[in-house]
Amino acid sequence: MYFDDEDRLELQYLAGGNIVEHAPVFSPDGRFMFVRCLTNVQVYATSTGELTRVLDDATAPLISLELDLKKPELLIGCTSTGELVQWNWRAGVLKKTVSLKLGSGEPTILTCHLMNLYKGGDTACAFVTTKKKSGEQVNYFVVNTSTGEKVDINCGLKLKVRTPLVDVGKGHFKYIVLAQGFYIYFVNYVTWNFCRYKSARQHTVTCVRMSPCEMVAATADTEGKIFVWREFEEQETMTNTLFHWHHMEVTSLAFSPSGVSIYSGGHETVLVKWPLATPEKRKYLPNMSSVIRHIVVSNDNENVLVCTEDNAIQLVSGSNSIIKSTVQHFTYETKDKTGRSKFPMGLRLNPRTNTLVLNGRSGHLQFFSAYTKSMLYNLRVVDHNYHSEEVDRIIYNTRITRAAFNINWMATGEVHNDLENFVEVRLKFWQYNEKLQSYILNTEIDLPHEDGFKDIIFSNQFQVDSLRCATAGEDNVIKVWGLTESENIYKRGKMWSCLAQTSYRNLPIGSLCFSQDGSLLAVGYGNILALYDARNPRLPLQTLSCPPGLDGVISKAQLRLAQTPLNGARKELTQQRQQLWALLKTLVNSNDEKLVNQAKELIVGPPSKAKLVNQPESASKEAVFRYIMKMPELGLHQKLQLLRRFGVECQVSHPHRNRLMEHLQQRELIPQTTRLRLRKLDARLHRLHTRHRYKAKQRLSHLNKRRKSFEDLVPQDVMSLFSVLKLDESTKPKKDTKNKSKLDESSKAKQKVKRIPAEAAPLQGLAQISQVQFGAGDQAHLVAVCTESRVLIWNLLTLRLQAGLKLSVRQLAFDPLTNLIAVITKNDELHVFQPNVPLPLYQRSNLPKTHGLAWLPRRQPKQSSINVDWQAQSTLLMLTHSQKIAYLAPPGQSPSDDAPAPITLAQNAETENLLRYATFGIHVTKQQQQPGESLEKSGPLIVGRGHHSAVDAFVNLSAHTMPAMSLICNEFVKSLLTPADSASRHSSKAGEDAPLTNGGPVNGNGLSHGHSDDEQEEGELEEGDVTRSTLDTRKTLLEHNEKLEDLLPGGETDQQALDDRLKIITALRTKLRL
User: Fold this and answer.
1) Cβ pair 467, 458 in contact under 8 A
2) 3-class DSSP assignment, residue 34
3) What are the tens digits of pLDDT across the range 315-328?
4) Residue 274 in contact with residue 243, Cβ under 8 Å?
5) CA pair distance 547, 556, nearest whole angstrom
6) What's the CA gap between 530 and 544, in Å, rounded?
7) CB atoms within 10 A of CB 155
8) pTM
9) How far apart are CA 223 and CA 225, in angstroms?
């Protein structure tokens, strides 16, 4: 699959929709709430927070959503393109779609609010603000929502350029309050008179709100001040009251339905309730999960919705301020001023439940199920209070930078670095508790490394015995941790302690990885790959490094062939391909050392040792020149060296000559830019901490010395290249541009070029290792190493470099099920390949920026090869910079489409094999039928019966691993009921089953009683009835025997099923003899 081939996969989004961008809406009775998420309207039950319905008929993002005043069952939304969508939200039916007719052009709708105003339509009119182009002033209109026509009004208000903040009073006092910057407008939408005011000290207004039952309005600004406005029709009678508690900007205001109190929230993560009569008796609800964005109060004043910036909606009781429920989607990280990554640990997979784990709200990890597309829970890792943002300061909170997962353990690394004090580093080990269904802190280590973590990894994801954990720090030290007996007298049991630590030449650590069996530990030190024994990692067993080459990584030879068209290749291309392939085979099979040495010198030889190759003919010089200039991987200096070796001279036009001369002088001869940069770095050294200042000064001084030596000697070598471009002063430009001048081969050979000593050579960038990954299964001996410009595959059996790919990898994810490696390059390209055959199975360009990758195993793998479908076993998930989880799939397909069939607790024999591969089918098929079990396997499920352990298994399952209730409730309830037509059948079978179970009849609780009332009644039966019953039983058994013998197919391939049927027939014949 190449970039220009047809790609049938589409980039789709699994999670990450923002449900708190706009304020939600309550239903009239407060039982439901409506949430906008781009083009969808999600209807949630207020009491449980369960999603009941999705209205997805809008074609563009919704900017407003309100209920009609006279028809409360009608939900009206407006899109950014000017389309009004009306739903009957009780029935979930689209009623009408109306386009707004606002005149010429295509203006963008900024706000839309319904008014208590009806102008010849069934629905209320709306106050709409629009803007055509950026920089133009905002226009406003009153439209009829039934027809979309404009309503003529006479108002002299002229708005400015900013997007206005608007709220409309729908009660007895019909006013519109608008705010633009520090200007506040009050408009009466009956008379269309308006008044304009300025905020105190001209602070920017952040939110406005109208009281539902009084002529009272509230505004808030960036200084945290709240002003309550009264009698604002005239400036002489206007009064406002200051409410001030917030020290940062207020983000939301909401009046209670009675207008007695007002709610406010901001960056302090505190919900404040102000009584308007006595504001000093305010009440607080502190420690909300994040910054408050919106506050909505229900009509009965019983519930208050608080939307926080971490993408959560919390339902708070209006009377006692207790959080009732929470609607939590994919958690967002709060924006801060530090400029650091929001997801430093990337995207991780918990092997216990195959859930995605990533950074959530500050100091938390969020566990997200991709199968059910639901947020499971947030785990608090950092045991510190959250520090809210301040206006003039940058607040640094403790961040979780690394995490690793085992089936029973979790390791987290947290760092607090405020760039002023000593860095706080903590390593925590968490153990999974089956009873609590959560992780419990087991061991906490303070300062395991200095300055932070580079990587944390467990030796095995699924094993617990002899488990090891390796951590790499910014101090270039690797520590290996293991489970030991606790020495604490207050807490006995297992705890984690350091078993060994090591480093290698004090080189920086790029990445580390354990082999599949956990016996080897591979570490990337700079450009060196070191292999350790995981049990004793003090000295490396082997060290592997890449050979130097043209690009500083490996020696390479590129063979470029024309790509085969989709409909077949042309004859001339096929002939060229055959000739090139024959030439390549001849070169490979040749034992001529002289030819090989000449090729090596041509490819990797330094300029001082480069010899002049056989000069091409004059006719082919132009082709050689064009081919060399089209090589994008070579720089200008390297292209000039190749041209010089081939004896090709170029003529440059006079305008380009000056530009090239200036470029070479600045970059090579007189590097003024480099000198200026070094001076700036020297001037910034005082900003560093004293612990780092001396080391930085030493490095900078060493760099200056090498650069000075290079500047003194390199012109002698570079000046010889000027003759190629005719830029030296001793030559003059040619007048004849057609004839190419030739260099004298003998004089060129006699020319002596002074070599540059090693100590004066410029600094060459080494290939720093950024990722290390072992293979799995039959490819466990292969190690993939990612550098700045290459992906190298090492074979540990031969200790040789097996393959190399020219990729600049930024993120890497490995799938142990299929041995597939997925990488995202710095150019946002996706490449999927296997280590043993490093040819791309799939490639895709123009992907969004990503924070991390993860392979999610399918619950029901596809029976197809990875060459046909590379996502047959696992799905590749990506965490984008827009805080969404994306995946590649055909249109209309998602990772949740491979869900198993609904689980039936009373299964037939034909479906048992299918249930074995279901997610929870093992609990149903665990209890196999024994030879002495009853003839009839189906029947009602009795809860007290011992051999039905499936009930206990389902009851004891944790909430976040339980399948959806719609899959199991229906069958579970059916299994507890006995059909009326089969009641007599089950009662008649009870006596027959008794000899084959435990020697007696079984009651409803699974207990047998040898002397029961039933046996006494059977003993009192008359002799004729006994004979008649015996004959009926014999006939029934004979019929069953004939049916089972007829059911035996000739082509039966299931040996277990045949054995079961033979056992049943044998038991029947035994009964017949009796």
Assistant:
1) yes
2) strand
3) 998 888 788 888 88
4) yes
5) 11
6) 6
7) 15
8) 0.65
9) 6
